[in-house]
Amino acid sequence: MQNILIYTNVDKDIGLEVTKRLVDILKSHNKSIWINYRGVCEIELKEYCIELSEIPDKNIDIIMAIGGDGTILGLAREVYHYDVPIIGINLGRIGFLAEVEIGDMENIVTFLEKGKYEIEERIMVEASITSDPDRKDMIGLNDIVINRGSFSRMIEVEIHINGKYVDKYFADGVIISTPTGSTAYNLSAGGPLLMPDALMMVITPVCPHSLSARPIVVSYTHRICVKLSEEAENEKEVPMLTIDGQEGIELSGKEDIYIKKAEKTIKLIKPKGINYYDILRKKLN
User: Fold this and answer.
1) What residues pair up with 170 in beta bridges, in sequence order?
2) 106: how many CB neighbours lie within 10 A of its CB?
3) What is the DSSP code string of 162-221?
4) Alpha-carbon span 34 to 225, nearest angstrom
5) Structural contact between residues 141 and 158, judged by C-beta atoms closer than 8 angstroms
6) Please, are residues 269 and 84 in contact by the beta-carbon 8 Å criterion?
């Protein structure tokens, strides 16, 4: 892995101190370095700065993301088409995806060069909506969520799987989560934890007005349809589709949203020897 792109969340790496330190580490190992971050490229690092669209031209082997899990979620959507593995350096709160802590950064090149890592392929989800069938950018690593707008009232949603009616929920919304996203909003809403490499998705209602509504785990090969049956009466009642909790799209109210596994996966680099159950205990307690 010779050509390395550093992707920095400037809101997390204040003053780019971690980025500069990582550049020095990589330079000491004679690596070819490129940098991308939101904001004006700092003058002393300007020679390394590229746009993400230049990844194929630079033959990038690996992306080192500096930030938190949210940074990796956003990056995963941006580099979805490039098939480049990502390793995360954690400056955030949780660190399920960004597993390398700052104190271990000095060893990052060593364990990569010695092959002391694994590449996990994580499935992603893709949504399409009847009002805008040609839109192609609704892809998430964690989840697709359909929820009520700013007005505090429930929405009515019907769930269909592979064209077959499953159930109707009166709820604040519904989450369609990947295994990666099962530790996020899905968990908070009472959904089950899935192993990261599980080939499944989970449908979890949010605050359903029912004693019987429960999450449903389905195969990743299934096509899910969420039907909204009511037109929004005003702009406050317009339901939203959100992707990884970072991007939001207003829905018309009476709409069909189709959700399936995305065509490609995202590749995450993990140091060998890490026990996922240890991470769960550490991060969620």
Assistant:
1) 156
2) 12
3) TTEEEEEEEESEEEEE-TGGGGTHHHHTTPPP--TT--EEEEEEES-S-SS---EEEETT
4) 41
5) no
6) no
Nearest to 143 by CA among 206, 213, 73, 50: 73
Tokens of residue 16, six digits = 């780019």
CA dihedral sign, ordered 126, 132, 135, 140:
negative
Beta bridge partners of 4: 33, 62
Task: Provide the token pair at 214.
Answer: 């429960």
**Nearest to 280, CA basis, from 198, 196, 224:** 196
Q: How many residues does the chain have?
A: 285
- H or E stretch at 40: none
For the stretch 252-275, what's the b/e string if a residue is b when 16 or more beta carbons lie within 10 angstroms of its beta carbon? ebebebebbbbeebbbbbbbeeee
pTM of the model: 0.91
How is domain 124-263 classified at the architecture level of CATH? Answer: Sandwich (2.60)
Domain limits of the chain? 3-115, 124-263
Rg (CA), the chain: 20
CATH architecture of the domain covering 3-115: 3-Layer(aba) Sandwich (3.40)
List the chain pLDDT tens, one digit each, 285 residues: 789 999 999 889 988 899 999 999 999 999 999 998 766 577 678 888 889 999 999 999 999 999 999 999 999 999 999 999 999 999 977 778 888 888 888 888 888 888 889 999 999 999 999 877 777 779 999 999 999 876 667 899 999 999 999 999 999 999 999 999 999 999 999 999 999 999 999 999 999 999 889 999 999 999 999 999 766 555 556 889 999 999 998 887 788 999 999 999 999 998 887 788 888 888 777
Residues noted as catalytic: 69
